[in-house]
Design a protein that fits this description.
The protein is built from twelve helices and twelve strands. Helix 1 (16-28) links the parallel strand 1 and strand 2 (31-37). The termini are far apart. It has a domain at 6-194 and 230-257 and 299-319: NAD(P)-binding Rossmann-like Domain (Rossmann fold), CATH 3.40.50. The chain is globular and about 65 Å long. The protein has 358 residues and is α/β, with parallel strands linked by helices. 41% of the residues lie in helices and 16% in strands. The chain has helices at residues 16-28, 67-77, 91-96, 99-122, 125-130, 162-181, 203-212, 232-245, 262-276, 307-313, 321-334, 336-343, and strands at residues 6-11, 31-37, 57-61, 81-84, 132-138, 185-190, 192-194, 217-220, 226-231, 251-254, 259-261, 289-292. A seven-stranded parallel beta sheet has the order 3-2-1-4-5-6-10, with helices on both faces. A three-stranded mixed beta sheet has the order 7-9-11. Strands 8-12 form a two-stranded parallel sheet. The longest helix is centred in the N-terminal third of the chain and has 24 residues, at 99-122.
């Protein structure tokens, strides 16, 4: 094996964003990658086609909250960069059952930080100097925006859901380990991701799958809530960019610069499906749209100013929302076996997140 390859440990590497990052790193030929994943309901080794058996890739099943497993994988993989993506990430699930979010997002991050610090302190010379811990987070930690304005790296935290509260806590832990113990960390906060291999509970694949199955397309409230959409491959490129060129201790916001109302997004998905797989009755899939009671604490708008990432590191997204959505719909049409295997298991495409208290 090429000894000049950089060594990366990717936690949550069998998840949606993690698998996109692993696929990118392995395909580049510049990284030796260890994927560390608990394989919960959203972890899927089928999201790593052509990667699992690659000579520069190794998969280890484990929990970031398990200090013995974390210590072992660090000793075995000897990473120069830890990409920390392992997280419970679905807002609706956090409303119904926040305990798992606390365990993975807070306790897991604490455990990983503790073991990463132990590992880093044992390094010497160049190995110690080049080590980085990249913590991947969300724009939801900032709360909700009104009709105008954007989140920046200076925006105060104001999480609204159990999910965003646990991610905010993990962000603070990472910064504390840097300022208190000198762990060389980097942080990113991203906007909503979409693209291939996304678990079908998330908005875009959820709507595609339900439309194809002839089911209603439930839109919260009036569908006026706005999200800033980032293609997962653009996110993966940003993470590699930050890990290799970012300044230690800094936070970088990542955005696709693609704001859309939820209702407009669903209509766009229906339009793509109308072209790529027309309904037998000739009607638009938009006829399946229904409006349902809004979820508790639903933030109105997210939007990110990612100019720091562009200005300092030269990163730019490659996908427009129009092109990215069309390609995503096409991918789900061509990979029906992938999502059918998920839906035939424990996950059912039912609406969750209505519980008012856990």
């Amino acid at each position: 094996m090429n000894t000049r390859m950089r060594r990366a440990l990717v936690t949550g590497g069998a998840g949606f964003i993690g698998s996109a990052l692993v696929r990118r790193l392995v395909a580049s030929g510049a990284w030796q990658v260890t994927t560390f994943d608990k394989l919960t309901y959203a972890g899927n080794l089928e999201s790593l086609p052509g990667v699992l058996d690659a000579p520069q890739h190794r998969f280890v099943q484990g929990d970031v909250a398990d200090e013995v497993a974390v210590r072992r994988v660090l000793a075995e993989s000897q990473p120069e960069v830890i990409f920390h993506l392992a997280a419970e990430s679905h807002v609706d699930r956090s409303i119904d059952g926040p305990r798992e979010f606390l365990q993975t997002n807070v306790v897991g991050t604490f455990t990983l930080l503790t073991e990463a610090l132990r590992y880093h302190q044992a390094l010497e010379g160049a190995a110690r100097a080049c080590f980085r811990f990249l913590h991947v987070s969300t724009d939801e930690v900032f709360g909700s925006l009104g009709d105008t304005g954007h989140f920046t790296e200076q925006t105060p935290y104001a999480p609204s859901s159990p999910y965003s509260a646990t991610k905010a806590a993990s962000d603070h832990l990472v910064r504390a380990w840097h300022h208190t113990y000198g762990l060389p960390v980097l942080l990113t906060n991203c906007s909503n991701n979409y693209g291939p291999y996304q678990f079908p509970e998330k908005l875009i694949p959820h709507m595609i799958v339900r439309a194809l199955r002839g089911e209603t397309l439930p839109v919260y409230g009036t569908g006026a809530n706005v999200r800033d959409w980032l293609h997962v491959d653009d996110h993966a490129s940003a993470l590699e960019c930050v890990a290799t060129a970012g300044r230690v201790g800094e936070t970088y916001l990542v955005s696709g610069h693609n704001e859309a109302r939820n209702l407009d997004l669903v209509h766009a998905l229906c339009s793509h499906l109308d072209v790529l797989r027309p309904r037998a009755d000739g009607q638009s899939y938009a006829a399946q749209i229904t409006f349902v009671t809004d979820r508790p604490g639903h933030d109105f708008r997210y939007a990110i100013d990612a100019s720091k990432l562009t200005r300092e590191l030269g990163w730019q997204p490659a996908h427009t929302l129009t092109d990215g959505l069309a390609a995503t719909v096409q991918w789900y049409l061509e990979h029906e076996r992938w999502w059918q295997r998920i839906l035939s298991g424990a996950y059912r495409a039912d609406r969750i997140g209505l519980a008012r208290a856990a």
